Amino acid sequence: MTSVQGVVILFYADFYWILNFIMNLFLVWITAFIRRKKYTPFRWLTASAVVSFLSLIYKIRLLMGKRSIPEFFFMFFSIMLLTAFSYTYREYKGKNILKAYIKDMVLLLFSSVLTAGSLLLVRRVIHTGEKASILTAFGLSIVSFAILYVLFAVLRNMIKSEAKKCEVTLKATLFQGNKHVIINVLYDTGNNLSSPYTNEPVNIISEKTAMQIGIRKVQKPLLIPYNSIGGSGMLETFRFEKAVFQNGEVMLNFLGALSKEIDDNDDIQMILNCSSKKQKKSAKRRTKW
């Protein structure tokens, strides 16, 4: 209980904390769901509890008339903390850690703003009571539902996009000699590159990944011509020993052309040829170029 300008305000700190905790937990979960984050309930509970406690302290200071930072900056700071405490970024490296963190934070901020805005509109209708006209109440309700509809429509599209991406992306282990590396593979129906010498399908492999297994030290490259919307030229191509996919399929003795372009995308290290499904099923060894 506190008094502001002679008016006594009854403030339920426990109820305020519980409401913030539930809302933080919901926002953390929906962000993780959309971004396909690893589920870590203990981290989420801890992060939501800590940020809710900070919000409680901030609210009490405001009610007591003490100076505090503006609410917008505190909200932004809370979102930053909630994002940092809730998710891990061990699978990212270098600048990609910051990129992933910013994406998570922006999505969480977007969700919290729309959700909070909708709740405030509903609360305004409830608090005004009889003073609000039926038309005003109806209008505010429509706006509130429209915001929620837009929010969930955006979330739905993002979820569908991520699910579609998941269907064509899988993990694999690339073997060459006594070396191996785990990679993310994209099945691309637009990759029709083939060898003009043997008519074999040619997969695209990150040059950085190929260097990790030392392919240039054991083979001389074969130059294969390519034509695309971005231009044309020759690609250095090597024969790789084996790729074992997460679904158990194996691709043996296949051709892979090196590309620097996909080095910039750490999410994908190999792009399969559209004919590679047949190639994986047959898995026949070829010894000639």
What does this structure look like?
With 289 residues, this protein is an alpha+beta fold. The chain folds into two domains: 165 residues, no CATH class; 114 residues, Acid Proteases (Cathepsin D, subunit A, domain 1, Beta Barrel). It has a six-stranded mixed β-barrel with strand order 3-4-9-5-8-7. The chain has a two-stranded antiparallel ribbon with strand order 1-2. The longest helix is centred in the middle third of the chain and has 34 residues. The chain is elongated.
Number of separate domains: 2
As residue ranges, the low-confidence spans are: 125-132, 281-289
Spatial strand order of the main sheet: 3-4-9-5-8-7
Using the alpha-carbon principal axes, give the shape: elongated
Q: What is the terminal separation in angstroms? A: 83 Å
Strand content: 15-25%
The overall pLDDT average reads 76
Structural Rg: 27 Å
Largest sheet: 6 strands, mixed, barrel
- The SSE string, one letter per element, is EEHHHHHEEEHHEEEEH
Number of strands: 9
Q: What structural class should be given to the helix and strand makeup?
A: alpha+beta
Distinct helical segment count? 8
